[in-house]
Specification:
The complex is a heterodimer of chains A (112) and B (112). With 112 residues, chain A is mainly beta. Chain A has no helices and 9 strands. The chains are: A mainly beta (112), B mainly beta (112).
């Protein structure tokens, strides 16, 4: 699986957009980019995933560069409840055993 | 709708004692099942995954084992706990041929 690199921590002001970067320079053509987040002492929560087109759902937007070597998760209007560790992983979508390695992620702190 | 349960929520065990953590999934059939461990402040380490009853793959060598006696039941065990087994244990499931994983609430294990 392609390895991902994320900054260890980021701050964001409440109400502003939070842009979380992820580098995955060794991503393969059939690997998707997935984002999860983990609020303290809870299990991770799926946010969004994409292959090459930008994606948007009710939680966030995912921007993937044209060469697919990096991506950015955007929380358009961050709230205090968005404070969490955000994990970026890359995996082949259609496999029968979705092994996912979660690195240390980015700790996002939303400040009032 | 699908739900995933883990118990116990917290556990304190002496070194050398046995361990049994249970995970069950409701509302789906033939899921992929996973056990992860998370050390304090770190990412998730995949321990075991299963694509079916009695089909278990181990990702890292250790003194833990996993079993899947029923389609929606996944058990993590140890005969003798080590201090290094302390951590946050998370169970997750995904649909076959899909890498979107849904996590349980976790079990916080402290080995003294």
């Amino acid at each position: 699986d392609a390895k991902t690199t994320q900054p260890p921590s980021m701050d964001c002001a409440e109400g502003r957009a939070a842009n979380l970067p992820c580098n995955h320079s060794t991503i393969s053509g059939n690997e998707y980019v997935y984002w999860y987040r983990q609020i303290h002492s809870q299990g991770p929560q799926y946010i969004i995933h994409g292959l090459k087109n930008n994606e948007t759902n009710e939680m966030a937007s995912l921007i993937i560069t044209e060469d697919r070597k990096s991506s950015t998760l955007i929380l358009p209007h961050a709230t205090l409840r968005d404070t969490a560790v955000y994990y970026c992983i890359v995996r082949v979508y259609n496999t029968n055993a979705g092994k996912s390695t979660f690195g240390d992620g980015t700790t996002l702190t939303v400040k009032p | 709708s699908q739900t995933i349960h883990q118990w116990p929520a917290t556990l304190v065990q002496p070194v050398g004692s046995p361990l049994s953590l249970e995970c069950t999934v409701e509302g789906t059939s033939n899921p992929n099942l996973y056990w992860y461990r998370q050390a304090a402040g770190r990412g998730l380490q995949l321990l075991f995954y299963s694509i079916g009853i009695d089909q278990i793959s181990s990702e890292v060598p250790q003194n833990l084992s996993a079993s899947r006696p029923q389609d929606r039941q996944f058990i993590l065990s140890s005969k003798k706990l080590l201090l290094s087994d302390s951590g946050f244990y998370l169970c997750a499931w995904s649909k076959q041929h899909n890498n979107e994983q849904f996590f349980g609430p976790g079990t916080r294990l402290t080995v003294l």
